[in-house]
Specification:
The chain is mainly α and 333 residues long. It has helices at 22-54, 99-106, 108-112, 162-191, 199-207, 210-230, 235-260, 268-278, 282-326.
């Protein structure tokens, strides 16, 4: 068909008996637009695949729909029922058709929301399709310092001197027993009861008698009890309160004579007679003096050790206070 100038009549190219309506013309125009858009999408997708194969980045692009540059004006066909109707030059394709198709085909968001597919281009059917996952950016979280728990130093426990007083008291009791036995044998030797011939026998007999062991045990208990009370006290405490140990030793001598009687076989008057006869006995005086003097001298030994223990306690306390003033420290191995 030759070109016609604007305003010239158009020959009817349709066969006789065939009529073309305006809706059919519009539908054909829509089909042409759909074919053009499909071809445009194929071209865009082919370009995207080519760029994806050539570019090193991992981003994936979605094809954008092609939009017609200018509206298409459809002229009425001669011989139709609407040939004499005026032509609407402002006609937009799809204006008189279903709006859902126009919205799906012309809205860019319809393609933006659609999932992106990786298409293998023609000619590369044998090539493996590589799906590149988008890079995941892990947020960097600043590390917060963790609290460090430091155990507080324990206050030093003060050392005592009672155990040492008990051990030293054992030595003092041994000394007391030896001197007490020697004094008893000497007094009996003055009376003529003990001679050089029977001194050993009398000594062994005394070691197995109540009158010897009761004063010794009483002296030890009194010495240790006084040491437990004085603890780390000075020697002056032993000098002053050693008199009490002497009195206890004197009472131990009287109690030993009652055990030697024995008192469970005596009447009350007989027991009183035994005690009355020993109140000013030389051996009772010896027991008092030995208990007094041995407590002073062995008590000085206990007091000297107590002084050293007190100094150690003060030094430990000063070290503890220095540690508290310095505060907690971290020790790295």
């Amino acid at each position: 068909m030759s070109d016609h100038k604007y305003g010239e009549p158009v020959e009817d190219s349709t066969a006789p008996g065939e009529t073309t309506s305006a809706d059919e013309a519009v539908a054909r125009a829509h089909e042409g637009l759909a074919d053009a858009e499909a071809a445009s999408r194929d071209v865009v997708e082919g370009d995207d695949v080519a760029r994806h194969d050539a570019a090193p980045h991992t981003e994936t692009y979605a094809a954008e729909p092609a939009v017609a540059d200018a509206p298409t004006v459809v002229a009425p066909v001669a011989g139709s029922l609407y040939a004499d109707d005026p032509v609407d030059e402002s006609y937009t394709p799809g204006a008189y058709s279903d709006g859902s198709y126009a919205q799906e085909s012309s809205s860019p968001s319809a393609y933006a929301d659609a999932p992106t597919e990786i298409v293998t281009p023609a000619g590369h059917a044998d090539a493996p399709t590589e799906i590149v996952a988008p890079a995941v950016v892990t947020p960097v979280v600043a590390s917060t310092p963790q609290p460090i728990f430091v155990q507080a130093p324990e206050a030093p426990r003060p050392r005592g001197n009672r155990a040492a007083a008990g051990l030293i008291g054992l030595l003092a009791a041994v000394a007391f027993g030896i001197l007490y036995l020697a004094a008893a044998l000497g007094l009996r030797a003055i009376d003529g009861e003990v001679t050089g011939a029977n001194v050993g026998t009398e000594a062994l007999a005394a070691l197995s008698s109540w009158w010897f062991w009761v004063p010794v045990v009483v002296f030890y208990l009194a010495f240790w009890l006084l040491g437990a009370i004085i603890n780390r006290g000075s020697w002056a405490h032993w000098v002053i309160f050693g008199l009490l140990v002497g009195v206890a030793s004197y009472g131990g001598h009287l109690l030993g004579q009652l055990f030697q009687a024995p008192f469970w076989q005596l009447t009350a008057s007989q027991g009183q007679e035994v005690v009355r006869g020993q109140l000013l006995a030389p051996l009772a005086i010896v027991a008092f003096v030995l208990g007094r003097e041995l407590t002073i001298w062995f008590g000085g030994w206990v007091a000297a050790r107590g002084k050293r223990v007190s100094e150690l306690n003060r030094e430990a306390q000063r070290e503890y206070e220095r540690t508290l003033e310095a505060g907690p420290r971290l020790h790295q191995s």
